[in-house]
């Protein structure tokens, strides 16, 4: 997921609940500038995000928290850079620290979801 977090665009908001139902009219993907483009938000990517969201919900997390927890679960990882424009986003991201453990089944599920890329 480390490479996929970057590829799916966590920094641009794709791994948030915002895109679960498609591209919102006021989203970054609908703007002419920036890194996240409409073609990055394909139905295949949205299917992956929705599947990751289901797993995240079963863990009591948002999909963004799941992604951050996945990155931070590795003891070799010293930090994860997050982008937030509101205090609530920082608080939600920090809440990922509350559940950094993954079962082998959860890790296998993540790999299966990402293999559909």
CATH architecture: Alpha-Beta Barrel
The profile of the biggest β sheet is: none
Supply the helix-strand structural class.
mainly alpha
CATH class: Alpha Beta
* Radius of gyration based on Cα positions: 14 Å
Number of beta strands: 0
Share in β-strands: under 5%
Spans where pLDDT lies below 50 across 5 or more residues:
1-9
| Percent of residues in helices | 40-55%
Distance between the termini: 11 Å
CATH topology assignment: TIM Barrel
Rounded mean pLDDT is 81
- Cα shape: globular
Total number of distinct structural domains: 1
Order of helices and strands: HHHHH
Helices and strands in order:
Blueprint lengths: L1 H7 L34 H16 L4 H10 L14 H8 L9 H12 L2
Helix pairs in contact: 2-3, 2-5
Which descriptors would you attach to this protein?
single chain; 117 residues; mainly alpha; TIM Barrel; disordered N terminus; globular; 5 helices
Task: Summarize the structure in short.
This protein has 117 residues and is mostly helical.
Please provide a written account of the structure.
This protein has 117 residues and is mainly α. It has a single domain, classed as NADP-dependent oxidoreductase domain (TIM Barrel). It has helices spanning 2-8, 43-58, 63-72, 87-94, 104-115. The protein starts with a helix and ends with a helix. The protein is 45% helix and 0% strand. It is built from five helices and no strands. It is globular and about 40 Å long.
């Amino acid at each position: 997921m480390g490479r996929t977090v970057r590829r799916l665009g966590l920094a641009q908001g794709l791994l948030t609940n915002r895109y679960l139902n498609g591209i919102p009219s006021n989203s970054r993907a609908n703007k002419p500038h920036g890194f996240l483009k409409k073609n990055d938000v394909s139905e295949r990517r949205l299917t992956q995000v929705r599947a990751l969201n289901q797993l995240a919900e079963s863990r009591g997390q948002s999909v963004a928290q799941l992604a951050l927890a996945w990155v931070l679960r590795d003891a070799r990882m010293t930090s994860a850079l997050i982008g937030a424009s509101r205090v609530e986003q920082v608080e939600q991201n920090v809440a990922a620290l509350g559940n950094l453990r993954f079962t082998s089944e959860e890790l296998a599920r993540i790999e299966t979801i990402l293999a559909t890329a």
